[in-house]
Design a protein that fits this description.
Blueprint: E1 19-26, E2 33-38, E3 41-44, H1 51-54, H2 59-67, E4 70-76, E5 80-82, E6 91-96, H3 100-109, H4 114-122, E7 127-132, E8 143-146, E9 153-154, E10 157-163, E11 169-177, E12 179-180, H5 181-186, H6 191-195, E13 201-209, E14 220-227, E15 230-238, H7 246-254, E16 263-266, E17 284-289, E18 293-301, H8 303-310
Parallel strand pairs: 6-16, 8-18
Antiparallel strand pairs: 1-2, 1-5, 2-3, 3-4, 6-7, 9-12, 10-11, 10-16, 11-13, 14-15, 14-17, 17-18
Helix pairs in contact: 3-4
The chain binds 2,5-dioxopentanoic acid and magnesium ion.
Residues 94, 96, 156, 158, 177, 268-269 line the site of magnesium ion.
Protein backbone atom coordinates (compact mmCIF):
# COMPACT_ATOMS: atom_id res chain seq x y z
CA UNK A 1 0.00 0.00 0.00
CA UNK A 2 1.49 3.33 -0.99
CA UNK A 3 0.58 6.53 0.81
CA UNK A 4 -1.71 8.70 -1.33
CA UNK A 5 -1.15 11.99 0.47
CA UNK A 6 1.73 13.29 2.56
CA UNK A 7 1.38 11.84 6.06
CA UNK A 8 0.20 14.15 8.80
CA UNK A 9 2.64 15.03 11.55
CA UNK A 10 1.59 13.71 14.94
CA UNK A 11 0.28 16.52 17.14
CA UNK A 12 2.59 18.45 19.38
CA UNK A 13 1.82 21.21 21.82
CA UNK A 14 4.22 24.02 22.64
CA UNK A 15 6.45 22.94 25.50
CA UNK A 16 4.98 19.44 25.54
CA UNK A 17 6.23 16.36 23.73
CA UNK A 18 3.40 13.94 23.04
CA UNK A 19 3.71 10.16 23.23
CA UNK A 20 2.00 7.96 20.63
CA UNK A 21 2.00 4.19 20.10
CA UNK A 22 2.74 3.65 16.41
CA UNK A 23 2.70 0.86 13.85
CA UNK A 24 5.22 1.69 11.16
CA UNK A 25 7.61 0.65 8.47
CA UNK A 26 11.22 1.89 8.13
CA UNK A 27 12.14 3.04 4.63
CA UNK A 28 11.11 0.45 2.04
CA UNK A 29 11.19 -2.47 4.50
CA UNK A 30 8.08 -4.63 4.10
CA UNK A 31 7.90 -5.62 7.78
CA UNK A 32 5.61 -3.63 10.04
CA UNK A 33 6.98 -2.74 13.49
CA UNK A 34 5.45 -1.49 16.70
CA UNK A 35 6.95 1.36 18.69
CA UNK A 36 6.47 4.63 20.46
CA UNK A 37 6.84 8.03 18.83
CA UNK A 38 7.94 10.83 21.14
CA UNK A 39 8.26 14.10 19.27
CA UNK A 40 10.62 13.52 16.34
CA UNK A 41 11.91 10.12 17.52
CA UNK A 42 10.48 6.63 17.17
CA UNK A 43 11.54 3.89 19.62
CA UNK A 44 11.04 0.17 19.15
CA UNK A 45 9.01 -1.66 21.78
CA UNK A 46 11.16 -4.61 22.90
CA UNK A 47 9.54 -8.00 22.46
CA UNK A 48 6.40 -6.56 20.85
CA UNK A 49 5.99 -7.82 17.30
CA UNK A 50 2.42 -6.63 16.70
CA UNK A 51 -0.15 -4.30 18.19
CA UNK A 52 -2.39 -7.34 18.65
CA UNK A 53 0.16 -8.87 21.03
CA UNK A 54 0.28 -5.61 23.02
CA UNK A 55 -3.52 -5.67 23.53
CA UNK A 56 -3.30 -9.15 25.04
CA UNK A 57 -1.50 -7.57 28.03
CA UNK A 58 -2.89 -5.81 31.10
CA UNK A 59 -2.96 -2.01 30.97
CA UNK A 60 -0.25 -1.76 33.66
CA UNK A 61 2.06 -3.96 31.52
CA UNK A 62 1.33 -1.94 28.38
CA UNK A 63 2.12 1.26 30.29
CA UNK A 64 5.37 -0.21 31.59
CA UNK A 65 6.51 -1.33 28.12
CA UNK A 66 5.78 2.10 26.67
CA UNK A 67 7.74 3.74 29.48
CA UNK A 68 10.66 1.33 29.06
CA UNK A 69 11.01 1.82 25.32
CA UNK A 70 14.32 0.79 23.89
CA UNK A 71 16.63 3.71 23.21
CA UNK A 72 18.90 1.43 21.15
CA UNK A 73 16.12 1.06 18.57
CA UNK A 74 15.61 4.79 17.92
CA UNK A 75 14.91 6.12 14.39
CA UNK A 76 14.04 9.66 13.31
CA UNK A 77 10.29 10.03 12.62
CA UNK A 78 10.93 11.26 9.08
CA UNK A 79 12.46 7.87 8.16
CA UNK A 80 9.29 5.91 8.92
CA UNK A 81 5.89 5.48 7.28
CA UNK A 82 3.02 5.17 9.69
CA UNK A 83 0.73 2.20 9.04
CA UNK A 84 -2.91 1.79 10.15
CA UNK A 85 -2.81 1.23 13.93
CA UNK A 86 -4.50 -2.17 13.93
CA UNK A 87 -3.31 -5.64 12.95
CA UNK A 88 -3.77 -9.38 13.35
CA UNK A 89 -6.98 -10.61 14.95
CA UNK A 90 -7.93 -7.25 16.42
CA UNK A 91 -11.34 -6.26 15.04
CA UNK A 92 -12.85 -2.82 14.62
CA UNK A 93 -16.35 -2.33 16.03
CA UNK A 94 -18.44 0.83 16.13
CA UNK A 95 -21.23 2.37 18.15
CA UNK A 96 -24.08 4.27 16.54
CA UNK A 97 -26.50 7.01 17.49
CA UNK A 98 -24.50 8.04 20.54
CA UNK A 99 -24.90 11.78 19.88
CA UNK A 100 -28.14 13.75 19.38
CA UNK A 101 -26.80 15.06 16.03
CA UNK A 102 -26.42 11.49 14.75
CA UNK A 103 -29.94 10.58 15.90
CA UNK A 104 -31.38 13.57 13.98
CA UNK A 105 -29.37 12.76 10.85
CA UNK A 106 -30.58 9.11 10.78
CA UNK A 107 -34.21 10.12 11.33
CA UNK A 108 -33.98 12.49 8.37
CA UNK A 109 -32.41 9.94 6.04
CA UNK A 110 -34.71 7.01 6.83
CA UNK A 111 -38.30 8.27 6.74
CA UNK A 112 -39.97 4.86 7.08
CA UNK A 113 -37.78 3.48 9.88
CA UNK A 114 -37.07 6.66 11.81
CA UNK A 115 -38.29 5.28 15.13
CA UNK A 116 -35.52 2.64 15.37
CA UNK A 117 -32.98 5.45 15.79
CA UNK A 118 -35.09 7.20 18.43
CA UNK A 119 -35.51 3.95 20.30
CA UNK A 120 -31.82 3.02 20.27
CA UNK A 121 -30.78 6.52 21.36
CA UNK A 122 -32.99 6.19 24.45
CA UNK A 123 -32.41 2.47 25.12
CA UNK A 124 -30.14 1.05 27.78
CA UNK A 125 -28.39 -1.25 25.25
CA UNK A 126 -26.36 0.74 22.69
CA UNK A 127 -26.17 0.04 18.98
CA UNK A 128 -22.85 -1.76 18.33
CA UNK A 129 -21.85 -3.17 14.98
CA UNK A 130 -18.86 -4.90 13.39
CA UNK A 131 -17.04 -2.33 11.27
CA UNK A 132 -13.85 -3.86 9.86
CA UNK A 133 -11.26 -6.59 9.91
CA UNK A 134 -7.75 -5.22 10.52
CA UNK A 135 -6.37 -6.08 7.07
CA UNK A 136 -8.82 -3.80 5.25
CA UNK A 137 -8.38 -0.69 7.42
CA UNK A 138 -6.64 2.24 5.70
CA UNK A 139 -4.40 4.70 7.50
CA UNK A 140 -3.25 8.28 7.34
CA UNK A 141 -2.32 9.43 3.84
CA UNK A 142 -4.26 6.63 2.15
CA UNK A 143 -7.71 6.58 0.55
CA UNK A 144 -11.25 5.81 1.66
CA UNK A 145 -13.90 4.85 -0.87
CA UNK A 146 -17.41 5.60 -2.02
CA UNK A 147 -19.35 2.55 -3.19
CA UNK A 148 -20.50 2.95 -6.76
CA UNK A 149 -24.08 2.01 -5.73
CA UNK A 150 -24.25 4.80 -3.12
CA UNK A 151 -25.66 8.23 -3.98
CA UNK A 152 -24.90 9.82 -0.59
CA UNK A 153 -21.71 8.88 1.30
CA UNK A 154 -20.24 10.79 4.23
CA UNK A 155 -17.21 10.56 6.49
CA UNK A 156 -18.03 10.05 10.17
CA UNK A 157 -15.30 11.47 12.42
CA UNK A 158 -15.17 9.48 15.64
CA UNK A 159 -12.98 8.82 18.68
CA UNK A 160 -11.98 5.14 18.62
CA UNK A 161 -11.13 3.38 21.87
CA UNK A 162 -8.29 0.86 21.85
CA UNK A 163 -9.34 -1.84 24.30
CA UNK A 164 -7.20 -4.71 25.59
CA UNK A 165 -8.50 -8.24 26.04
CA UNK A 166 -9.39 -7.43 29.66
CA UNK A 167 -11.73 -4.61 28.65
CA UNK A 168 -9.37 -1.84 29.75
CA UNK A 169 -9.09 1.26 27.53
CA UNK A 170 -5.41 1.41 26.58
CA UNK A 171 -5.59 4.31 24.15
CA UNK A 172 -7.46 6.48 21.68
CA UNK A 173 -7.18 6.98 17.95
CA UNK A 174 -9.13 8.71 15.18
CA UNK A 175 -11.66 6.72 13.12
CA UNK A 176 -13.49 7.61 9.94
CA UNK A 177 -16.61 5.41 9.94
CA UNK A 178 -17.30 6.08 6.25
CA UNK A 179 -21.00 5.46 5.63
CA UNK A 180 -23.45 5.35 2.76
CA UNK A 181 -26.46 7.34 3.96
CA UNK A 182 -28.48 6.41 0.88
CA UNK A 183 -28.06 2.64 1.42
CA UNK A 184 -28.75 2.69 5.18
CA UNK A 185 -31.55 5.22 4.62
CA UNK A 186 -33.35 2.78 2.31
CA UNK A 187 -33.53 0.18 5.08
CA UNK A 188 -31.57 0.00 8.38
CA UNK A 189 -30.99 -3.72 7.75
CA UNK A 190 -28.66 -2.65 4.95
CA UNK A 191 -26.29 -1.17 7.56
CA UNK A 192 -23.48 -3.71 6.96
CA UNK A 193 -23.49 -2.85 3.25
CA UNK A 194 -23.55 0.86 4.05
CA UNK A 195 -20.61 0.61 6.41
CA UNK A 196 -18.42 -2.44 5.82
CA UNK A 197 -16.62 -2.53 2.48
CA UNK A 198 -13.12 -1.95 1.08
CA UNK A 199 -12.26 1.68 1.85
CA UNK A 200 -15.05 2.05 4.41
CA UNK A 201 -12.81 2.40 7.48
CA UNK A 202 -9.82 4.63 8.16
CA UNK A 203 -7.89 4.78 11.44
CA UNK A 204 -4.89 6.67 12.68
CA UNK A 205 -2.41 8.15 12.40
CA UNK A 206 -1.40 6.63 15.76
CA UNK A 207 -2.62 5.71 19.23
CA UNK A 208 -2.48 8.14 22.14
CA UNK A 209 -2.07 6.11 25.35
CA UNK A 210 -5.08 6.38 27.66
CA UNK A 211 -2.98 7.54 30.61
CA UNK A 212 -1.90 10.58 28.57
CA UNK A 213 -5.44 11.91 28.05
CA UNK A 214 -6.75 13.66 31.15
CA UNK A 215 -10.41 13.96 30.15
CA UNK A 216 -11.66 12.06 27.08
CA UNK A 217 -15.08 13.75 27.43
CA UNK A 218 -13.62 17.15 26.52
CA UNK A 219 -12.03 16.42 23.14
CA UNK A 220 -12.71 18.81 20.27
CA UNK A 221 -13.44 17.10 16.93
CA UNK A 222 -13.14 18.91 13.61
CA UNK A 223 -14.04 17.59 10.18
CA UNK A 224 -12.89 19.33 7.00
CA UNK A 225 -13.70 18.11 3.50
CA UNK A 226 -11.69 19.73 0.73
CA UNK A 227 -12.69 19.65 -2.91
CA UNK A 228 -10.55 21.09 -5.71
CA UNK A 229 -8.48 23.04 -3.18
CA UNK A 230 -11.47 24.69 -1.44
CA UNK A 231 -13.42 23.73 1.68
CA UNK A 232 -16.57 21.86 0.62
CA UNK A 233 -17.79 21.23 4.20
CA UNK A 234 -16.47 21.89 7.66
CA UNK A 235 -17.85 21.34 11.14
CA UNK A 236 -16.73 20.97 14.72
CA UNK A 237 -18.10 19.38 17.87
CA UNK A 238 -16.89 17.81 21.11
CA UNK A 239 -17.05 14.50 22.97
CA UNK A 240 -18.74 16.55 25.73
CA UNK A 241 -22.09 15.91 24.01
CA UNK A 242 -21.74 12.10 24.00
CA UNK A 243 -24.91 10.59 25.47
CA UNK A 244 -23.23 7.47 26.87
CA UNK A 245 -20.01 6.76 28.72
CA UNK A 246 -17.11 4.95 27.08
CA UNK A 247 -17.25 2.45 29.95
CA UNK A 248 -20.88 1.65 29.12
CA UNK A 249 -20.03 1.03 25.44
CA UNK A 250 -17.02 -1.13 26.33
CA UNK A 251 -19.13 -3.09 28.83
CA UNK A 252 -21.69 -4.05 26.18
CA UNK A 253 -18.97 -4.89 23.64
CA UNK A 254 -17.09 -7.21 25.99
CA UNK A 255 -20.16 -8.79 27.56
CA UNK A 256 -20.78 -12.35 26.33
CA UNK A 257 -17.94 -12.23 23.78
CA UNK A 258 -14.16 -12.45 23.70
CA UNK A 259 -11.49 -10.38 21.94
CA UNK A 260 -8.24 -12.26 22.63
CA UNK A 261 -6.09 -9.57 20.97
CA UNK A 262 -8.18 -6.62 22.07
CA UNK A 263 -10.60 -4.64 19.94
CA UNK A 264 -11.07 -1.11 18.64
CA UNK A 265 -14.42 0.54 19.29
CA UNK A 266 -15.34 3.68 17.37
CA UNK A 267 -17.70 5.64 19.58
CA UNK A 268 -20.11 7.29 17.14
CA UNK A 269 -20.24 10.51 15.22
CA UNK A 270 -21.24 13.97 16.36
CA UNK A 271 -20.82 15.49 12.88
CA UNK A 272 -22.87 14.53 9.84
CA UNK A 273 -22.76 16.80 6.77
CA UNK A 274 -26.45 17.41 5.94
CA UNK A 275 -27.96 15.78 2.83
CA UNK A 276 -27.69 16.14 -0.08
CA UNK A 277 -23.97 16.63 0.67
CA UNK A 278 -21.98 13.64 -0.45
CA UNK A 279 -18.29 12.85 -0.72
CA UNK A 280 -16.90 12.87 -4.26
CA UNK A 281 -13.94 11.23 -5.96
CA UNK A 282 -10.85 13.41 -5.41
CA UNK A 283 -11.99 14.91 -2.07
CA UNK A 284 -9.60 15.11 0.86
CA UNK A 285 -11.04 14.37 4.31
CA UNK A 286 -9.28 15.71 7.39
CA UNK A 287 -10.37 14.71 10.90
CA UNK A 288 -8.67 16.42 13.80
CA UNK A 289 -9.27 15.25 17.36
CA UNK A 290 -7.59 17.31 20.04
CA UNK A 291 -4.78 15.51 21.89
CA UNK A 292 -5.24 12.40 19.71
CA UNK A 293 -4.21 13.33 16.17
CA UNK A 294 -5.20 14.33 12.66
CA UNK A 295 -6.24 11.69 10.13
CA UNK A 296 -6.09 12.77 6.50
CA UNK A 297 -7.31 10.59 3.64
CA UNK A 298 -8.10 10.93 -0.03
CA UNK A 299 -11.39 9.70 -1.50
CA UNK A 300 -11.99 7.47 -4.55
CA UNK A 301 -15.23 6.19 -6.04
CA UNK A 302 -15.79 2.60 -7.04
CA UNK A 303 -14.17 -0.76 -6.32
CA UNK A 304 -11.61 -0.69 -9.12
CA UNK A 305 -10.21 2.69 -8.02
CA UNK A 306 -10.13 1.47 -4.42
CA UNK A 307 -8.41 -1.79 -5.32
CA UNK A 308 -5.78 0.16 -7.22
CA UNK A 309 -5.21 2.47 -4.26
CA UNK A 310 -5.24 -0.39 -1.75
CA UNK A 311 -2.56 -2.43 -3.43
CA UNK A 312 -1.51 -6.06 -3.68
CA UNK A 313 -3.47 -7.37 -0.66
CA UNK A 314 -6.65 -7.13 -2.76
O1 LIG B 1 -27.30 3.53 13.02
C1 LIG B 1 -26.49 3.86 12.28
C2 LIG B 1 -25.08 4.08 12.59
C3 LIG B 1 -24.84 5.37 13.24
C4 LIG B 1 -23.42 5.72 13.35
O2 LIG B 1 -22.54 5.12 12.75
C5 LIG B 1 -23.04 6.84 14.22
O3 LIG B 1 -23.89 7.40 14.93
O4 LIG B 1 -21.86 7.17 14.22
MG1 LIG C 1 -20.55 6.14 12.91
Amino acid sequence: MLPFLPQTRLPSRPGLILVHIVRYRIGQSPSPRVGVQVGGDVFALPGVSSLASLWSLRLADIHQRVDERETAGRVPADEITLLPPVDGRTEVWAAGVTYESSRQARITESERSADVYDRVYEARRPELFFKSAAWRVVGDGQTVAIRDDSSVTVPEPEVALVINTFGEVAGYTVCDDVSSRSIEGENPLYLPQAKTYLGGCALGPAIRPAWEVADPYKLGIELTIERAGAIAWQGSASTASLRRTFGDLVGYLMHADIHPDGVLLSTGTCLVPPAPFTLADGDVVRIEIAQIGTLTTGVVRGLERMRAAFGPAT
